[in-house]
Amino acid sequence: MERTVLASRRPAALLASLAAAALAWLAAYIALPDLADYLTYGLLGLDRASHLGSSVGFFLYDVPKILLLLTAIVFAVGIVRSFFTPERTRRALGGKREGVGNVLAAMLGIVTPFCSCSAVPLFLGFVESGVPLGVTFSFLIAAPMINEVAVVLLFGMFGWRVAALYIGTGLLIAILAGFVIGRLHLERWVADWVYQIRMGQASLEETRLDWEGRVRYALQAVRDIVGRVWPYVVVGIAVGALIHGYVPEDFMAGIMGRSAWWSVPVAVVLGIPMYSNAAGVIPVVQALMEKGASLGTVLAFMMSVIALSLPEMIILRRVLKWQLIATFIGVVGSGIVLVGYLFNAVI
Amino acid sequence: MANAVSIKVLGTGCPNCRKVEAIAREAVAELGVDATVEKVTDIRAIMGYGIMSTPGLVVEGKVVSAGRIPSKAEVTSWITTALSAKQG
């Protein structure tokens, strides 16, 4: 396989512009609380104690904050992702036995670039390479669920502990669910033609990206993701702001509070048919939490919405029979319910 | 059209695949070369090229890009290379 190195121009200039951008970002982030404060109470003259003032203050602070965080993290993750390709992941996973394979697949699922439209070619490629079915599933669960948008938003709204817990339990679910599915030996529920297909030999020259190429890739990811997601962030935060300002405390406690034991499974079931990207769901989640919903229940709801996505199920329907899809939903759903209970009990 | 450069865009229809197709067509138009741009959406055909992430780009039967949106400059250079290979 030939390797073509894209010529790099003026690496020093690149570094300088990146450093400048980082400084500008930091300055904006630090100035934000005071700026939002000034805009709401100073410029617009709203009353600090009023519902409207509270809502607007929340909104004007959170929207830029989240967008700034998103931009930074998507860029950083983009750089990390530029080092991984599905082809390399496939090679890394091919022939690994279960257990180890599940762990590796889940971790690789986080860093390998993945778009749900590639779910089918990816699935086929993995199967073709002798990656066990369960290991493939560990990858397919981790990749959409543990996405940087979700992690950033959780970090921005709940702090790093919750974000870390999300990543940790997400990995755990991906590993265990994939392992369980593998152990159930459900190969008979994969569409027959999948095992008959012969994948062509990749003639793709592996272009080793230089740093300029990586930065370009990461910037493209920022334009792509933030560009797609920002309306949801704005709407989500607006809804969250309204709840923050207007809904009385503990309103949600009865419905989504920890005392209602059924709230976790119900939240997960509700989340299955719903699909939203993380950006839309999390601001609402935060506001709900402020009003008494317990962390475990809302996180379970969020995971269910993101990880069990209807569009992706429809795409996978091409390669999986419905029994396998149902099993997939069942196993992952149960994992999420357990995590929900765990969170409620511990936090 | 016998000597047209054959370009295929591999993808199942997501926005990224359409972008790649648009870039390919633009590159062809700007170069003014004789080329056919074809969209391949059948999954089995796509698998035949040995890639796992769409969108993919194939120039004269060779996979030049997979899983990302190449820049117009890159596409232009691939077409030019393929063209000189054909004529040389």
CATH topology description of chain B: Glutaredoxin
Largest sheet of chain B: 4 strands, mixed
Query: What structural class should be given to the helix and strand makeup of chain B?
Result: alpha+beta
Regions of chain B with pLDDT < 50 over 5+ consecutive residues?
none
Cα-to-Cα separation, first versus last residue of chain B: 18 Å
Provide a descriptive summary of the structure in words.
The complex is a heterodimer of chains A (347) and B (88). Chain A folds into two domains: 11-81 and 214-244; 86-203 and 247-346, no CATH class. Chain A has helices at 11-43, 51-81, 86-93, 100-111, 119-128, 133-145, 148-158, 160-183, 192-196, 211-246, 253-256, 263-271, 278-290, 295-307, 310-316, 322-346. With 347 residues, chain A is mainly alpha-helical. Chain A is globular. In chain A, helix 10 runs parallel beside helix 13. Chain A contains 16 helices and no strands. With 88 residues, chain B is α+β, with helices and mostly antiparallel strands. In chain B, strand 1, helix 1 (15-31) and strand 2 (35-40) form a beta-alpha-beta unit. The two termini of chain B are 18 Å apart. Chain B has helices at 15-31, 43-48, 72-87, and strands spanning 5-10, 35-40, 56-59, 62-66. Chain B has a single domain, classed as 3-Layer(aba) Sandwich (Glutaredoxin), CATH 3.40.30.10. In chain B, 44% of the residues lie in helices and 24% in strands. Chain B is globular, with a radius of gyration of 12 Å. Chain B has a four-stranded mixed β-sheet with strand order 2-1-3-4. Chain A binds chain B through residues 85-87, 90, 113-115, 117-118, 120-122, 124-126, 193, 197-205, 216-217, 220, 318, and chain B through 11-14, 16-17, 43-44, 46-54, 62-69, 71.
